[in-house]
Specification:
Blueprint lengths: L2 E5 L12 H10 L4 E6 L5 H4 L6 H7 L6 H14 L5 E9 L5 H10 L6 E5 L2 E4 L2 E4 L4 H12 L2 H19 L3 E2 L20 H17 L2 E5 L15 H9 L4 E4 L12 H11 L4
Helix pairs in contact: 6-7, 7-8, 9-10
The chain binds zinc ion (2 copies).
The site of one zinc ion has 5 residues, from loops.
Catalytic activity: L-histidinol phosphate + H2O = L-histidinol + phosphate
GO molecular function: histidinol-phosphatase activity
EC number: 3.1.3.15
Length: about 280
């Protein structure tokens, strides 16, 4: 089964704006059997108020609250329309917002029965002047997070603590881009080095993932980020996950049609070859 398990749509304000049908047709062209739509759901107003960014930037992070109903309806229509050519699964990429757990719980309850699949990701950490994006720019990462926690490795530590908390709170079906905190690793001195303590944190997250029976997003978007240059998660983690038989699901994280299915060959090389032979 060829799956693209993490993709965005024309509802994403920081995506290309191309019609979702075009993404799906691209996936069909590339022989995908399953295509999972995992748009960013709206962020609650009370959280948006805690983001020290311009109104324009905040609005670009996720769809408007008023759009969520039409997103779900429209995606289900596409699912029906293409059902003979590709299996579409309608979902969301949920954010872990520890001070707004009720919001995420509300989304899950409100759309129960309409969500085939969800990914849980950490995109925000507490930082200078409120909550900061983990993946905006290296300058923002430095100003908002490194200045707040002291150094790169302390940010990593908090990121993984938060991710572990997220998994234990929501028991997701899949964990999104596990090593997102490494997005700017080549920008920062020592960014590539992983302290022993952090390795232990990551292994403990993997063991929780294993226990809970959830899967990992093998997200190739990181390969194309000039300061990351590798898929999320890093290859040593992929190896461990394969050893422990944690399912890794390919995800292009496409925000444009030409990104659908990107670097699927690398997924095959890293994940299928590393899987234990039976
Ligand atoms: Zn996005
Ligand atoms: Zn994401």
């Amino acid at each position: 089964m060829k799956i693209d398990g993490h993709t965005h749509t024309h509802y994403c304000p920081h995506g290309s704006g191309e019609e979702t049908a075009k993404y799906i047709e691209k996936a069909i062209e590339l022989d995908f059997d399953v295509y999972v739509l995992t748009e960013h759901p709206p962020l609650p107003a009370s959280f948006r108020n805690q983001l020290p960014y311009s109104e324009e930037l905040i609005s670009s992070l996720a769809m408007k609250e008023a759009d969520l109903d039409s997103y779900i309806k429209e995606m289900h229509k596409l699912k029906q329309k293409y059902k003979d050519r590709i299996q579409i699964r309608v979902g969301l990429e949920l954010d872990y917002l520890p001070e707004h757990l009720d919001w995420t719980r509300y989304l899950l309850k409100e759309y129960d029965g309409y969500l085939d699949e969800t990914i849980l990701s950490v995109h925000f950490l507490k930082g200078v002047n409120g909550w900061r994006c983990v993946d905006l720019t290296p300058e923002d990462y430095k100003e908002g997070l490194i200045e707040y926690y002291g150094d790169f490795h302390s940010v990593q530590k908090v990121y993984y603590q938060t991710l572990q908390e997220a998994i234990c709170t929501f028991h997701p079906t899949r964990v999104g881009h596990l090593t997102l905190c490494q997005k700017f690793q080549h920008y920062f001195a020592n960014g590539l080095y992983i302290p022993e303590e952090t390795r232990k944190q990551i292994l403990s997250i993997l063991s929780i993932i294993k226990q809970q029976g959830c899967s990992l997003d093998f997200n190739t978007a990181g390969l194309y980020k000039k300061y990351c240059l590798e898929p999320y998660p890093s290859s040593w983690i992929v190896q461990k996950a394969c050893e422990w038989e944690i399912p890794l699901i390919f995800g292009s994280d496409a925000h444009a049609v030409d990104q659908v299915g990107r670097s699927y060959d690398i997924y095959l090389k890293q994940c299928i070859k590393a899987a234990p032979k039976r």
